[in-house]
């Protein structure tokens, strides 16, 4: 759909995937006035298709739009656009184990001008792509590099919104992590460079203790780490399974000493793309360490199965998290 100041949203339509005509002066290309979301559609055992908590994506999108001085896409329009695309692409929703249709709603400033000001014209689009299982050959732990040179965002910046610029800033640290042989970057807080924030595209959890008494800890929302929908869902699922969950500040030193003395038994990252990814090796300038024995921990794998079971409709949706399409 298109937006023009004074006119509002218009021209909502479903079209074939193809090039997007735009002027060289398009504001989004110069000032990154651009926001996005990521969610998935899951084939259900009864043959229907459902998305997972799309209302939460619509709400986060609304916050992102507000921070980037963009117009609001009403929740019902956001949901209707995603539904229309999933419905049109029904045959592309894979039915294999852990396979999904990934959906990418986004909005960009489409007006052409060179001054630095909010644009008067916008495009809201949703595109889709089938996504295979993130771990086609079984879940394996990732290695992470703690970036002490770069932060994702400063307080007051755009850290906890899903805008293009944050991801542009994350490419160099991600490249640095890859050069050091690591899969992902871990960011620290921008002010003290002490507290763990998140990965480039996933939130982090730490498991304290083991068995039925195992507790989960995840960094509290800081204003710079992204409030992940998977993070939020897992806190609920873990509590329902009887585990205590705390949101609080966690320092890098605490993570390292906990891993070394065995009080932190597991660590995992979570997000829409990878669901849950165990974290094995941690590389940091102040000292490398391994979490547990470096393999996937039992609570990590239990939570992973529990969430996948909900998303793929293998257990009853007691929380109303599945949104049926069509
Ligand atoms: N942090 C960042 C920086 C992300 O890009 C994402 C992916 N949206 C997440 C965390 C996880 O969020 P979600 O669970 O909503 O996918």
UniProtKB/TrEMBL annotation:
Organism domain of life: Bacteria
Catalytic class of the enzyme: transferase
- Please verify whether the record's keywords include Cytoplasm: no
Q: Which CDD domains match?
A: BCAT_beta_family
What does the record give under GO molecular function? branched-chain-amino-acid transaminase activity
The pathway it acts in is: Amino-acid biosynthesis; L-leucine biosynthesis; L-leucine from 3-methyl-2-oxobutanoate: step 4/4; Amino-acid biosynthesis; L-valine biosynthesis; L-valine from pyruvate: step 4/4; Amino-acid biosynthesis; L-isoleucine biosynthesis; L-isoleucine from 2-oxobutanoate: step 4/4
Name the chemical reaction catalysed here: L-leucine + 2-oxoglutarate = 4-methyl-2-oxopentanoate + L-glutamate; L-isoleucine + 2-oxoglutarate = (S)-3-methyl-2-oxopentanoate + L-glutamate; L-valine + 2-oxoglutarate = 3-methyl-2-oxobutanoate + L-glutamate
Q: Which cofactor does it need?
A: pyridoxal 5'-phosphate
The family database entries (PROSITE patterns) matched by this protein are listed as: AA_TRANSFER_CLASS_4 (PS00770)
- Keywords for this protein: Amino-acid biosynthesis, Aminotransferase, Branched-chain amino acid biosynthesis, Pyridoxal phosphate, Transferase
- EC numbers listed for it are 2.6.1.42
Which positions are tagged coiled coil?
A: none
Q: Which NCBIfam families match?
A: ilvE_II, PRK13357.1
Q: Which family does it belong to?
A: Belongs to the class-IV pyridoxal-phosphate-dependent aminotransferase family.
* Name assigned to this protein: Branched-chain-amino-acid aminotransferase
């Amino acid at each position: 759909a298109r937006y023009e100041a004074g006119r509002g949203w218009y021209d909502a339509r479903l079209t074939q995937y193809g090039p997007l005509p735009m002027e060289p002066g398009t504001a989004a290309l110069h000032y990154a006035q651009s926001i996005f979301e990521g969610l998935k559609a899951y084939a259900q055992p009864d043959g229907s298709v459902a998305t997972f908590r799309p209302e939460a994506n619509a709400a986060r999108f609304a916050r992102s739009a507000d921070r980037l001085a963009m117009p609001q896409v009403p929740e019902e329009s956001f949901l209707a656009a995603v539904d229309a695309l999933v419905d049109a692409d029904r045959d592309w929703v894979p039915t294999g184990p852990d396979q999904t249709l990934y959906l990418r709603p986004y909005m960009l400033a489409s007006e052409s001008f060179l001054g630095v000001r909010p644009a008067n014209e916008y495009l809201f689009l949703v595109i889709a792509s089938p996504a295979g299982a993130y771990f086609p050959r079984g879940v394996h732990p990732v290695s992470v590099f703690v970036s002490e040179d770069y932060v994702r965002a400063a307080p007051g910046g755009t850290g906890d919104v899903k805008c293009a610029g944050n991801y542009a800033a994350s490419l160099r640290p991600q490249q640095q992590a890859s050069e050091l042989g690591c899969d992902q970057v871990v960011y620290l807080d921008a002010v003290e460079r002490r507290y763990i924030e998140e990965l480039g595209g996933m939130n982090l959890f730490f498991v304290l203790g083991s068995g039925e008494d195992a507790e989960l800890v995840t960094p509290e929302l800081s204003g710079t780490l992204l409030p992940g929908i998977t993070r939020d869902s897992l806190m609920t699922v873990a509590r329902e399974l009887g585990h205590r969950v705390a949101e609080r500040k966690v320092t890098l030193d605490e993570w390292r000493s906990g891993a070394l003395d065995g009080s932190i038994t597991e660590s995992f990252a979570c997000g829409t793309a990878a669901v849950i990814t165990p974290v094995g090796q941690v590389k940091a300038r102040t000292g490398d360490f391994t979490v547990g024995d470096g393999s996937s921990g039992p609570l990590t794998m239990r939570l992973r199965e529990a969430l996948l079971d909900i998303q793929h409709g293998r257990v009853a949706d007691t929380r109303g998290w599945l949104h049926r399409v069509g």
